[in-house]
């Protein structure tokens, strides 16, 4: 492939277009950069920096004392745990569904249905999702009504209103998100490789072990990281189900808009900073993983 | 990708292929005649069917439970009365805000999708073509919005939006900028994966060596290859807009979700009906877009 | 793809044109009214007289054409009917009701973040704690019936706020599930209430939840300046397995997931048979005997209201006997109730149905509120686990 690039200078005329090529490209990056700075950079910096100020504008580190609070620590563990479980679970389940979708005609109705369904469900959240799960898995929901009918009233309590109970609820939007973002990677598996492995005498297991999984690994981990971040900062659904908190996102809401405990609004900033730190750590791990997996690509 | 290299004689090939290929060949052929069956990657039809059916049931269950609720008469028994409430003229005023919100959200869908497609995708392709070292930075930038909780981001958006309000007014459509940022992480991933699978540099070089200008290359060579990723990104953006609540609340605009919350306070049954209808509506729209996008002939990979 | 792009451009163009016609704005009055005020003058108007009487106020408000209210859920203290009534009386003024789920803190945050924009809230309905921290956001204004509200229920020095209504902390429950009823607080520790009892959120976050804990404290022998017995009660409730840690809504009450809810009486009433087909017909509201606990909310006007005349008209509307009776019908005791009982403007049938306001009930003053929130911050999470 690089040979072609090197051939460029040999007898092939490359017509000059608008201006000197190397510098023209930078202009193409400007619109997005401006947009990102205005609507992402500025708010992000403001939001995180608020953790370093008091309500009156003085610089302080006092907001970080919230991390000494055992409740905050428990909530951090809860958030990371919930996000990790739903990210890994969602990634695997989503990958399995993508795998199944490979057997389906790519431009057919079933595939389009699954795509449309995944898109719609990936963002279905908040109060409505919470209520749908209350109606399904709550103490008086479909499932428990059946279970309690068989085993006697009060035999089972719904786990829905605890942090672990959020796992099925979160998976409901994590899995479609995975399907949506990972499917292009699955489709990029060229049939030629399958044929090549077969030609070389490999089984399907060999194909997956030596070709499929290594090729898919970077995309898989990238999507898993997205799922983790999605779950980590997700708020509305948890707020509807867990009235007593238990996650960092809920703590942030509580700190910034509490009616009863006033004066801690900027702790939200320090909590947000903690979340960003967690994400940076994760992204670094992902970067390392990707560099190792990149051996399989031509990058 | 380089696994095809081996040195066998044609005779050995003929000897190997019929025997070894048998276990690897899958008993299916979903494609039209002329498409090579996939070896190795795709599962068998029955396996796929089982997986998809189980997934379908699990995902429909909460929807069904919600739907059952909408038919419950309070006090026991079942009724379609709640659906009739939707068209009851006395209660129309309650739903005003919801319809306004739906209108705003639809406009936002279009605008946000345009922002993502017009800003993010060309930038990603440009980076891929000319500045591959910036890829990591782009990925990070596009992941940041989801790492910062939306409510905190909304607080940070306040100063920017006071400027926006002076320049462009306080109408709902100006939310498109903020929601575009929120949608970036989700829209980035499918396009990135697609770009990784398409060798953009080679295609560009090929196009240039055949005398095409950059616009032609972009429009006729690169983008058609990225169709899958772009459509997926557009899908995700639309659903992000339809599901977004926090920023709209914080900046005081009416969108579908804020309207839904309003209605929920008056009549929970109607609110659940509306949210199910919204899901259905979104599903149908995306189905139509998806079929429309699938009609064009696929470029062979 | 081209088609899609063109379609998108077309829709965008239509949208821009359509929305451009929707911009709200305040305009100076121009003829035909008793006194016409500029926007700046309207912002500082202290009573209807500054507009030249109610007619002038109404004309100025109609010219503005919009009113932004915030955190007024339709089923809360009959705000649905109250808002509808205003829109019927003044069809030229369109009400934009934002963020019904918000708290008082959200109102203040919205006022600050949307300062100067046309969507900023015009009027507030605030809890006392938050209001006391944000007095600089409020504009002084005296409604025409100012004198009908007793002095300690309004801001007698600056006229910046006035009580609007209170409820009493009550227990709402489904009579079908619990036919024996609830006579005292400790009844809730009974095993039949497994996974049944919910409060409106987290007491370190929401005023209504804090009030529930305070009520529990008062019923368990505590006092307003020490709500530890309330925290203890909820701990016992949790240990008995009866405490449900989710946010009850009208939907969960109708569906049956939260069969016992401790919240303001006007909310419990509003989610029951009074809500017609949207409510739970078996829902009964009971206020336990003993010292009642209430909390007056406060009406106030945004000092930077984008629609100042409409804001002031809204206040006048609220403090008229018709609307005060609407509050009462929902079980929220309005601030003008004692005066209305004296001069006979109260709706006697409604008063009969809802029950008279308790003669003694307690509220949390600023000190006790601070003590309560400090205690909760320290002890609540551990107690509820």
- Main sheet of chain A? none
Helix and strand succession of chain A? HHHHHHHHHHHH
* First and last CA, distance of chain B: 14 Å
Low-confidence stretches of chain B: 1-8, 12-36
- Would you state the CATH class of chain A? Mainly Alpha
Describe this structure in words.
The complex is a heterotrimer of chains A (299), B (301) and C (385). Chain A is an all-alpha fold. Helices cover 69% and strands 0% of the residues of chain A. Chain A has helices at residues 2-6, 21-49, 70-101, 109-122, 126-137, 142-151, 166-187, 191-199, 204-233, 236-241, 248-257, 267-293. In chain A, α4 (109-122) packs across α7, α8 runs antiparallel to α9 (204-233) and α9 packs antiparallel against α12 (267-293). The longest helix of chain A is centred in the first third of the chain and has 32 residues, at 70-101. Chain B has helices at 10-24, 45-70, 81-86, 92-130, 135-147, 150-168, 175-197, 200-209, 214-225, 227-243, 246-250, 256-266, 268-295. Chain B is globular, with a radius of gyration of 25 Å. Chain B has 301 residues and is mostly helical. Chain C is globular, with a radius of gyration of 23 Å. Chain C starts with a helix and ends with a helix. Chains A and B meet through α2, α3, α4, α5 and α7 of A and α1, α2, α4, α5 and α6 of B.
Concise synopsis of the structure shown:
Chain A has 299 residues and is mainly α.
Q: What is the strand and helix layout of this fold?
A:
The complex is a heterotrimer of chains A (299), B (301) and C (385).
Chain A: H1 2-6, H2 21-49, H3 70-101, H4 109-122, H5 126-137, H6 142-151, H7 166-187, H8 191-199, H9 204-233, H10 236-241, H11 248-257, H12 267-293
Helix pairs in contact in A: 3-7, 3-9, 4-7, 7-9, 8-9, 9-12, 11-12
Chain B: H1 10-24, H2 45-70, H3 81-86, H4 92-130, H5 135-147, H6 150-168, H7 175-197, H8 200-209, H9 214-225, H10 227-243, H11 246-250, H12 256-266, H13 268-295
Chain C: H1 2-20, H2 39-43, H3 54-64, E1 66-70, H4 79-89, E2 94-98, H5 104-113, E3 123-126, H6 128-133, E4 138-139, E5 162-163, E6 165-166, E7 169-174, E8 197-199, H7 207-219, H8 228-239, H9 250-255, E9 260-264, H10 265-270, E10 283-286, E11 292-293, E12 298-302, H11 308-318, H12 321-329, E13 333-334, H13 337-343, H14 348-354, E14 361-362, H15 366-384
Parallel strand pairs in C: 1-2, 8-9, 11-14
Antiparallel strand pairs in C: 3-12, 4-12, 5-12, 6-13, 7-9, 7-10
Helix pairs in contact in C: 3-11, 7-8, 8-15
């Amino acid at each position: 492939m690089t040979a072609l690039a090197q051939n460029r200078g040999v007898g092939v005329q490359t017509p000059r277009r608008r201006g000197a090529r190397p510098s023209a490209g930078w202009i193409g990056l400007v619109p997005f950069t401006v947009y990102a700075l205005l609507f992402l950079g500025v708010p992000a910096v403001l939001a995180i920096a608020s953790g370093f100020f008091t309500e009156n504008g003085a610089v302080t580190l006092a907001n970080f004392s919230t991390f000494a609070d055992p409740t905050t620590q428990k909530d951090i563990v809860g958030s990371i745990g919930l996000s990790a479980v739903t990210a890994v679970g969602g990634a695997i389940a989503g990958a399995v569904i993508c795998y199944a979708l490979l057997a389906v005609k790519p431009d057919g109705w079933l595939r389009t249905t699954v795509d449309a369904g995944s898109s719609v469900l990936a963002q279905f959240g908040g109060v409505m999702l919470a209520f749908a799960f209350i109606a399904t898995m709550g103490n008086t929901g479909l499932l428990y009504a059946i279970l309690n009918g068989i085993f006697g009233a009060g035999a089972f309590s719904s786990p829905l209103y605890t942090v672990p109970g959020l796992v099925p609820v979160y998976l409901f939007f994590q899995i479609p998100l995975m399907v949506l973002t990972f499917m292009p990677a699955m489709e990029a598996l060229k049939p030629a490789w399958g044929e090549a492995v077969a030609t070389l005498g490999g089984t399907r297991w060999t194909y997956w072990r030596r070709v499929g999984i290594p090729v898919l690994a970077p995309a898989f981990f990238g999507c898993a990281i997205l799922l983790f971040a999605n779950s980590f900062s997700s708020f509305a659904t948890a707020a509807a189900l867990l009235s007593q908190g238990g996650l960092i996102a809920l703590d942030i809401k509580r700190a910034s808009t509490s009616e009863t405990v006033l004066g801690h609004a900027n702790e939200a900033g320090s909590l947000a900073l903690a979340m960003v730190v967690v994400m940076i750590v994760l992204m670094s791990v992902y970067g390392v993983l990707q560099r190792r997996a990149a051996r399989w690509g031509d990058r | 990708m380089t696994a095809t290299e081996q040195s066998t004689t044609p005779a050995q090939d003929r000897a190997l292929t019929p025997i070894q290929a048998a276990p690897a060949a899958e008993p299916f052929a979903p494609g039209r005649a002329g498409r090579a069956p996939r070896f190795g990657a795709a599962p068998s039809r029955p396996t796929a069917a089982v997986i998809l059916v189980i997934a379908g049931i699990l995902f429909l269950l909460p929807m069904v439970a919600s739907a059952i609720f909408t038919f419950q008469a309070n006090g026991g028994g079942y009724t379609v009365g709640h659906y009739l409430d939707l068209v009851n003229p006395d209660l129309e005023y309650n739903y005003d805000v919801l319809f306004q919100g739906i209108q705003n959200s639809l406009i936002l869908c279009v605008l946000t999708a345009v922002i993502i497609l017009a800003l993010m995708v060309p930038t990603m392709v440009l980076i891929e073509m000319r500045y591959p070292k910036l890829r990591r930075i782009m990925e990070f930038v596009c992941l940041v919005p989801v790492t910062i909780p939306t409510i905190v981001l909304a607080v940070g958006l306040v100063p920017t939006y006071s400027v926006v309000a002076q320049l462009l007014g306080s109408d709902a459509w100006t939310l498109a900028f903020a929601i575009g940022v929120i949608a970036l992480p989700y829209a980035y991933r499918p396009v990135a994966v697609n770009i990784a699978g398409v060798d953009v540099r080679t295609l560009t070089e090929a196009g240039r060596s055949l005398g095409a200008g950059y616009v032609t290359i972009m429009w006729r060579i690169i983008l058609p290859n990225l169709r899958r990723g772009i459509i997926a990104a557009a899908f995700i953006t639309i659903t992000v807009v339809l599901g977004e609540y926090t920023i709209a609340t914080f900046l005081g605009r009416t969108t579908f979700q804020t309207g839904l919350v309003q209605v929920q306070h008056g009549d929970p049954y109607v609110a659940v009906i509306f949210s199910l209808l919204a899901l259905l509506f979104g599903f149908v729209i995306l189905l139509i877009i998806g079929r429309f996008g699938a009609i064009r002939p696929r470029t062979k990979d | 793809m081209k088609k899609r792009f063109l379609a998108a451009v077309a829709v965008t163009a239509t949208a821009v044109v359509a929305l451009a016609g929707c911009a709200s704005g305040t305009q100076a009055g121009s003829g035909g009214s008793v006194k016409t005020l500029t926007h700046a003058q309207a912002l500082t108007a202290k009573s209807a007289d500054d507009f030249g009487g109610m007619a002038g106020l109404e004309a100025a408000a109609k010219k503005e054409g919009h009113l932004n209210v915030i955190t007024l859920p339709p089923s809360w203290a009959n705000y649905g009917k109250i808002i509808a009534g205003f829109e019927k009386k003044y069809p030229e003024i369109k009400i934009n009701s934002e963020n019904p789920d918000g708290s008082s803190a959200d109102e203040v945050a919205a006022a600050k973040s949307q300062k100067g924009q046309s969507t900023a809230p015009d009027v507030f309905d605030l809890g006392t704690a938050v209001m006391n921290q944000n007095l600089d956001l409020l504009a002084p204004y005296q409604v025409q019936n100012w004198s009908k509200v007793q002095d300690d229920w309004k801001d007698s020095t600056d006229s910046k706020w006035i009580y609007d209504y209170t409820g009493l902390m009550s227990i709402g429950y489904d009579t079908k599930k619990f036919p024996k009823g609830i006579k005292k607080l400790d009844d809730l520790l009974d095993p039949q209430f497994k996974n049944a009892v919910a409060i409106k959120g987290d007491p370190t976050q929401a005023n209504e939840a804090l009030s529930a804990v305070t009520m529990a404290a008062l019923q368990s022998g505590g006092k307003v300046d020490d709500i530890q017995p309330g925290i203890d009660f909820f701990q016992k409730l949790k240990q008995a397995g009866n405490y449900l840690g989710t946010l009850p809504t009208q939907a969960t009450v109708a569906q049956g997931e939260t069969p016992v809810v401790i919240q303001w009486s006007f909310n419990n009433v509003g989610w029951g048979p009074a809500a017609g087909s949207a409510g739970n017909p078996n829902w009964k509201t009971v206020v336990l005997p003993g010292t009642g606990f209430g909390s007056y909310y406060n009406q106030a006007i945004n000092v930077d209201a984008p629609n100042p005349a409409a804001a002031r008209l809204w206040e006048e509307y609220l403090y008229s006997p018709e609307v005060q009776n609407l509050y009462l019908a929902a079980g929220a005791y309005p601030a003008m109730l004692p005066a209305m009982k004296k001069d006979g403007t109260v709706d006697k049938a409604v008063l009969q149905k809802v029950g008279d306001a308790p003669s003694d009930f307690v509220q949390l003053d600023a000190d006790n509120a601070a003590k309560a929130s400090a205690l909760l911050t320290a002890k609540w999470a551990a107690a509820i686990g």
